[in-house]
Write a structure and sequence with these properties.
single chain, 496 residues, alpha/beta, Rossmann fold, 3 domains, seven-stranded mixed sheet, 12 strands, 15% strand
Length: 496
C-alpha cells in the first residue's frame, strides 16, 4: 500500500510540474521565514514597490530601485495584481496589510506592523516590460507565502517516529532547553510506551510538548528548530489526532504493538507526515522556481550563542529541503526545481549602515556552514542584509563619555525596554544598537566581561515610518534598504 501511495504521490508531482512548464512566461516565488522574520512586510513592500515603480509620480527620490535594472533603465512599463490563481489557497491580504502600515483609515497615529500569517497564501502579480532590444514582454509572478516552520517539517519525511523522538529528546536535554522542557520530560518519563492507548494521556503529552515548543520560540530564547511546525501554528487542525502526539522515551530496537501508546503516537506522527507535510510538499513547495528565506538574525544574536547555534541548525535543515537544484528532466519533475535561493537578514534598519556588512557576513558565515553540511547542490545562493520597510534614520549621538556613537532614530513600539526605560510607542528615540563583531565566528562565543558582545546589543522593535504623499496626495512606497538588490537577484534575469 505504501508503494502504491508513493507512486501516486510522484505522479501528482509530475502532473503539477508539467502544468507549470507549459504555463508560459511564469515564475513561482516562495517567500518564507521563521516566526517574526518579516514575511508579510516583505511581500507587501514587494507588491507596493512593483505596482508603482513604473509611475514616476510615485517614486521616492530620483531612483528608488537603482539595483533593479529593469526599473532603473526605465523598461518596467506596468505592474498590476491579477486574480488569485489557486481557488483552494487563501489570497494574500495585500490591501489590508498595506493599510496597517500606513494607518487604518488614514490615521497615521494608529499605523502598525501587519499581523503575521499562520497559513499559506498566494497572490499573482503581472509585470509588463521591454527587453533591451525594445521587444514588449510580460512576466507573471505567483508569490507563495508560507511559514518557515512548515519548511522545517520537510526533513520529517525521511525520519521514523523513533528517530524523531530520539533527536527531539536529545535537543530538549541541552543546557539551553532543559529548563523549558522539564515539565514535559517529567510527564513522559513516567509513561510506559507499552501501555494501552489512552487519549487523555496522549492529549496531555501533546499539550505539554506544545508548551515547551512555544517557550523555546519566546524572544528571550529565540530558538529556531522546533518541528512539527503545525504544533505552533495549528490553524483549523487544532485538537485533531494529527496534532495530538508527542515524542516518547523509547527503547532502542523495540517494535511496539499497534495498540500500545507508542503505537498510537507513531500512527499519528505518520498521519502528520501523510496528511500535512506531504501535501504541502506536493502542492506548493515542489512547484517553486525561486525562494527567499527571511532570517531574523538580530533576535538570535540578542538571545545569545545558543540561539545562534540553533539558527544555524535551522538553516541546515532548510538547505536539506532545497537539496536539488538543476538536474535531468525526470529529476526536475519529481523534486523541487528551485534554481535560486536568497537568504535575507531582515531588520537591517535596526543597525547603523556601518554594521550592515557585518550582519551580512554573519548570515553568510552561517549559511556557508549550513551548505557544507546539507550538501545543497545546483541552486545559486546569495545572502543580503535588508529591510523591506525602513523604520529608522541614522544620526551621530554623544555617549556618556562624550564619544560620538553611530545611532538609529525611530519610534520604538510601546513596551520596548532599554536599561529600564519603557517606550510609549509615540516618542522618537535615538538608540545605539551596539557593534556586531568583525569576525563572524565570535557569534558562537559567550560574551566576555567588558566586551561589546551579545549582552550589549540593543535591538528594539520600531513602529512603521510615517507615510509620505506626493503632491496629488497619493501615498508613496515606503522606504527600504536593499529591496532592489533582492528584486534583481530573484527576478532580474527573467526581465532582460
Amino acid at each position: 500500500m505504501s508503494f502504491l501511495s508513493d507512486l501516486l504521490f510522484e505522479a501528482q508531482i509530475i502532473a503539477q510540474n508539467l502544468g507549470d512548464m507549459v504555463a508560459g512566461p511564469h515564475l513561482r516565488l516562495g517567500v518564507t521565514g521563521l516566526s517574526r522574520a518579516g514575511k508579510t512586510v516583505f511581500i507587501t513592500a514587494l507588491i507596493d514597490q512593483l505596482t508603482k515603480a513604473a509611475r514616476p509620480s510615485l517614486r521616492r527620490g530620483k531612483n528608488p530601485l537603482p539595483v533593479f535594472r529593469v526599473q532603473a533603465e526605465g523598461r518596467l512599463t506596468r505592474g498590476e495584481l491579477e486574480p488569485q490563481p489557486d481557488d483552494a489557497v487563501p489570497r494574500f491580504s495585500y490591501e489590508k496589510h498595506l493599510e496597517a502600515l500606513h494607518g487604518p483609515k488614514g490615521d497615521t497615529g494608529t499605523r502598525h506592523w501587519p499581523e503575521s500569517t499562520s497559513q499559506i497564501s498566494e497572490l499573482r502579480l503581472r509585470l509588463e516590460f521591454e527587453r533591451p532590444n525594445g521587444q514588449q514582454k510580460t512576466l507573471t509572478i505567483d508569490i507563495v507565502d508560507y511559514p518557515g516552520e512548515w519548511l522545517l517539517d520537510l526533513p520529517l519525511l525521511d525520519k521514523s517516529y523513533a528517530e524523531w523522538s530520539r533527536e527531539t529528546l536529545e535537543a530538549s536535554a541541552s543546557p539551553a532547553r532543559a529548563t523549558l522542557a522539564e515539565e514535559w520530560r517529567h510527564f513522559i518519563g513516567q509513561l510506559d510506551p507499552k501501555m494501552g492507548m489512552a487519549e487523555e494521556t496522549a492529549r496531555e503529552a501533546a499539550e505539554l510538548f506544545t508548551t515547551y515548543l512555544k517557550g523555546c520560540r519566546a524572544d528571550i530564547y529565540a530558538f529556531s528548530v522546533l518541528p512539527p511546525g503545525r504544533f505552533l501554528m495549528p490553524g483549523d487542525l487544532a485538537g485533531s489526532p494529527a496534532l495530538t502526539f508527542s515524542p516518547l522515551m523509547l527503547e532502542e530496537g523495540i517494535a511496539y504493538p499497534a495498540h500500545s501508546l507508542a503505537g498510537m503516537m507513531e500512527r499519528r506522527f505518520e498521519a502528520y507526515k501523510t496528511h500535512i507535510v506531504r501535501p504541502f510538499f506536493r502542492d506548493h513547495f515542489v512547484r517553486l522556481d525561486r525562494q527567499i528565506v527571511l532570517v531574523d538574525a538580530l533576535s538570535a544574536l540578542n538571545a545569545g550563542a545558543a540561539a545562534v547555534r540553533d539558527l544555524e541548525a535551522a538553516l541546515s535543515d532548510i538547505l536539506v529541503a532545497f537539496r536539488v537544484g538543476h538536474g535531468n528532466l525526470l529529476t526536475n519533475l519529481l523534486r523541487p526545481k528551485i534554481d535560486k535561493i536568497l537568504f535575507a537578514a531582515t531588520k537591517a534598519d535596526h543597525l547603523h549602515h556601518t554594521s550592515h556588512d557585518r550582519l551580512e557576513a554573519i548570515l553568510r558565515y552561517l549559511t556557508n556552514r549550513a551548505i557544507s553540511r546539507a550538501e545543497a547542490g545546483g541552486a545559486t545562493i546569495d545572502v543580503i542584509a535588508m529591510a523591506a520597510v525602513r523604520a529608522t534614520r541614522e544620526a551621530m549621538v554623544s555617549g556618556e563619555d562624550g564619544t560620538a556613537l553611530e545611532a538609529v532614530i525611530g519610534t520604538p513600539l510601546a513596551g520596548e525596554n532599554i536599561d529600564g526605560e519603557i517606550f510609549d510607542g509615540y516618542e522618537e528615540a535615538a538608540i545605539f544598537p551596539g557593534d556586531l563583531p568583525k569576525d563572524p565566528k565570535l557569534i558562537f562565543q559567550p560574551p566576555q566581561p567588558g566586551s561589546t558582545a551579545a549582552s550589549d546589543y540593543r535591538f528594539v522593535r520600531f513602529r512603521p515610518p510615517l507615510p509620505v504623499r506626493n503632491p496629488e496626495g497619493t501615498v508613496l512606497p515606503l522606504p527600504h534598504i536593499r529591496l532592489d538588490r533582492a528584486f534583481e537577484f530573484l527576478l532580474g534575469d527573467r526581465l532582460n
